[in-house]
Amino acid sequence: MENIKRKTSKGKQVFRVLLLLSTFISLWFVPWILLKAWILPLPETVQAQVEQSLSYGFDGVIVYVDEAGKPPAFYTAGYHNTKEKIPARPDALFKIASISKLYVAVSISQLVNEDQISLDETVAYYFPELKDRIENSDKITVRMMVQHRSGIPNFTDNPEYWENQPNTNIDVLKYALDLPENFEPDQEYGYSNTNYLLLSRIIENVTGLNRQDYFKKRIFTPLGLNNTFGSISEVKNLDNVMSGYYVGLDDDFKTEDQGMIATAEDVGIFLRALNDGSLLNEEEVKIYASLYEFNHGGLAAGYQCMAEYHKDIDAVVIQFMNTTDFEGYQWNLLEITHSRVVKILRKAKE
Fold this sequence. Notes:
Shape: globular
CATH class of the largest domain: Alpha Beta
Number of helices: 12
Oligomer: single chain
Order of helices and strands: HHHEEEEHHHHHHEEEHHEEEEH
CATH superfamily of the largest domain: DD-peptidase/beta-lactamase superfamily
Number of domains: 2
Distance between the termini: 63 Å
Low-confidence stretches: 1-8, 15-30
Largest sheet: 6 strands, antiparallel
Number of strands: 11
CATH topology of the largest domain: Beta-lactamase
Radius of gyration: 24 Å
Helix content: 40-55%
Strand order of the largest sheet: 3-2-1-10-9-8
């Protein structure tokens, strides 16, 4: 009996040693910078949090806060242009990347309400020339594309898309054609930029306007958004565009055409109008609410951003950070620092 106990005790010791060893090994792989961002004491002010964000490797940060009943507030830290040591500007133009999907979803809702687009029509209906080039094109509907439930491959997942950067004079749709489905239509969720590329073309086809002109007519002008542009080519003074950087690279990605560009204030005004119902009429709001989300993030080479409305404190928070990386840590840090800004605002409310 004593021998059995000794063996058991020895086995426990071995187990404890192995457990301790595995703990040390796992700690080696912990992304400490993310842990640090989570556990640091929460600053008293948004400005202090924005300044703290620079310690995570960001070149520049812009935060716009619109709390109901208060004038909009702007917070900046770091550089608008790191090489030239130009301080971050609250009115800087910034590449908003996938935040632009909100504008597309709004436009689809408007056109559906006006019977110019049907949510139940298929890709094959709107693009008969793609019938044999997109699998299930006769089953994939506009609704599925808006909701990222189409199964159409994401063109930015194709290695050729990155090999051919900046893809000047190339129709990037080619990177999603003649490929197998990612999944059966409406059976799963799969984020795909191809969905919104096709939706943008549907908007153009049914209205006879290019996407930016439609946005200007139905969104920008009604809201007074004078600092929102469809591409870098529309910006008259490039000095107003915040530089964008990749960790480990010296390049400035500012001049690359990566889609829509706007100030934090313009994005904030749009997001407030989308969430408070003043942008869309009652029927359009119902359509939109059945289709898509009311907040969004955006990521492009050198640029990442977050646009969120927080109902509990009736506040819009827009955050721009002009540094990205290959591992995704910078994106995680954006999410963490954004959540800390919101916590500071909630704490101040209390």
